[in-house]
Amino acid sequence: MSASSDSAPKLSDEELKAHVRERFTKTAEVFGQYAVTNRVTEAETLARMVGANENDRGVDLASGPGTLALRFARHVRWICALDLTPAILERARQTAAHDGLLEKISFTLGDAQAVPLAAGSLDFAVTSYSLHHISDPGRVIAEMSRVVKKGGRVGVIDIEAPENPEIRALNHRIEFIRDDSHARSLTQGEFETMFAAAGLRITALEHKSHPRTFEHWMHVAGWKPTDPEYQEAHALLAGSIETNSANFSPRFEPADVCQPGKPPDLYMSNPGIYIAAEKL
Length: 280
What we know:
CATH architecture of the domain at 13-163 and 181-211 and 270-279: 3-Layer(aba) Sandwich
Order of helices and strands: HHHEHEHEEHEHHEHHEE
Radius of gyration: 19 Å
Number of helices: 10
Strand content: 15-25%
């Protein structure tokens, strides 16, 4: 699906979940390989921020290919990987089997907005790059708070939206063209408000950007350079270079010398936010 205006269609919760399942079923292998291989440092950073230790039991909500669960399992007693999409959850299970982690991870098909775990039953709850795919992210944060005990820890990694509404609108338009399961990215202020409403005290907050080529960013979402969606997003991103009007910090750089005749590569960066909190 392509967005042709500054405002993407508003989807119902069930429609959005259907888009999420479709998107991550289609890209389970290519996105799964990217996330598990390239987000190790991010997962380890969040593990450090929430103080993951060998006595902990926790949950990775909207776990996807196990981006967090596969790393946290190396530090904790047990973790549940919960996700809405069977295909990508199965990919996570296969990776865990390959890595000898099946005794440390349980895999559960479920909704991060209604977690099938008892209140106060866990030491920590984490999620990565999921909240911008969910219609009610505040509800997910509230669920994370609910399932951890008093003094338990909550950790989130996600895209950070710009505060400027015009920049945010173009940023969202490009994100939605790339992935129609993208609901919206949150600003730092919105994260802080949602954490406070859930009875969580933020203990650490970090900002990290992740440069990559536009071609690779689109590739892991399932697009090829010949696709209209690819071309539309490329044109919008390239058009934002002079003023960074979409908050992706785009730039052109010469292509690899091993690819003579290839046009310059378009690079971009997604601002990321890392938050750790404690349940009051």
